[in-house]
Design a protein that fits this description.
The complex is a heterodimer of chains A (about 60) and B (about 475).
Chain A lengths: L8 H10 L6 H21 L19
Chain B lengths: L10 H9 L5 H19 L2 E4 L1 H16 L11 E5 L26 H8 L3 E6 L33 H8 L5 E6 L5 H7 L2 E4 L19 E6 L2 H11 L29 E4 L2 H6 L4 H16 L3 E4 L5 H27 L5 H8 L6 H21 L5 E5 L15 H4 L6 H5 L3 E8 L5 E7 L5 H14 L12
Parallel strand pairs in B: 2-3, 2-4, 7-8, 7-9
Antiparallel strand pairs in B: 1-3, 4-6, 5-6, 5-10, 9-11, 10-11
Helix pairs in contact in B: 2-3, 5-6, 7-15, 10-11, 10-12
Classes of the chains: A mainly alpha (about 60), B alpha/beta (about 475).
Chain lengths: ~60, ~475
Amino acid sequence: MNEPEPMDRAEVEACLKRAGLSLSPAEVDGIHQVSGHIRAALRRIGTAREMGTEPAMMFRSPES
Amino acid sequence: MIAAPAQLPTIAGAARLIETRAMSPIELTQLCLARIHAYDGKLNSFVTVTEEHALAEARRAEAEIAAGRRKGPLHGIPVGLKDIYSTKGIRTTAHSKILADNLPAEDSTVWAKMSASGAILVGKLSTHEFAIGGPSFDLPWPPARNPWNTAHFTGGSSSGSGAAVAAGLVLGATGSDTGGSIRHPSALCGIAGVKPTYGLLSRHGIYPLAFSLDHAGPMAWTVEDCAILLQGMVGHDPKDPASVVVRVPDYRARLRQDLKGVRIGVIRHFHEADMPGDPEMARSVEAAAATMRELGAEIRDVRLPHLADFNACGLVIMLSEAFSIHAETFRTRFHDYGEFFRERIALATLISGPDYVQAMRMRRELTAKTLEAIKDVDVMIAAAMPGPAPKIEAVEKFGTFKRQTYALPFNITGQPVATVCCGFSGSGLPFGLQVIARAFDDATALAVAHAYERAAPWRERRPTLAS
């Protein structure tokens, strides 16, 4: 299986830091190495969509 | 030489024995406990065995039944609960150091319903940590092992439930399914398992993984037993915001012996093209479709969106929601979680808010396309896993994110799925088949899976256990 290219390591470190996580360099390495799969998933979902696909939160009227 | 404890009956069989007084709940519970003591040392399917509690409940069930107050087919039946189901005053750990001493103040709604139906709790079952972090060897309890070959993986995350049912240590168990966690161990352990329609069963008191994908459900040796368990678990619960008010049929009464007039769509492209599976497994799916045709079903192809679309969407939703649950504890106790859990969930930090919203929008598109595909059939069938259980040491920390699963699409759509054993590999490991129905037509998924199961020879095999 071809491994997708990882995200930029500095970007991975920044994301982990923003979340308040303190990881060892080895743990950051592991997450960095697999990060390409996350980026591939994000590319797959990141296309233009119709307004009808908004995740709706609504009250139902008593008549419905 | 001490004789090995006898094999357990099915729930349906035990219910008949109890009803006719040919077996007492105490005898049945003692048999389960004897089998747990004899075999679980090599299977690790239990985190906690509730022996005294079980025997006390069995005595109470026996007295109630003797007094003519039998509640139904679950009365006096010993079961196990995945250890993310809260049990009042009984340790509920999620297989994690984080909750190692957690004593819940109340029962999960599903267990409260099962208990009210007379089911007896013999113990809490192993899981992947918080239903995703496994199989792990750095947790307070070892991972469950597959009874068909203990060198192999059970599937997860309801790993102990799959192992304990397949080994005949309990008659039934509960699982939870966020991306296949009932269906994967059901398939790899060769048992039946049901992921009901989203919203049918309450998740109140069940530790969440990803709220919009989480489902509770039953696991048992047969589909009929799953129907009995489901009946005892179902019902609206205002404590779960996703719980729906819906008319509940008699699932067991809706089971059928044939499939005359049933239109079945086969989702072949998942395992033939999108993520090719093991050829032996693919043949078992074709053989199952042929058996269904012999039972009277009309078989045709159906095509859903590409598996990679479902998996990308599900991965982003699952990680985001899971991280939102653990974020605070991660900041203070990151290394108290097991390596698999903490590093898998830390991947969520790479996902942004807009990414999550886009995934939820994609979910609506995928669901609409799936509902369109099932429009002209009554159920769909698909492989449950790409092949037989791998060796437990071969399971990769990030394997879940590198490979697609055939199960996750139906967490995204919320449709009911019954998983049933559909054969064995040359090495003697089971394969599983998914039977997928329309939302809230759980009864049809069960009925089709049951008809197939009765026509196939797979329930005649049991794993050979070493004590």
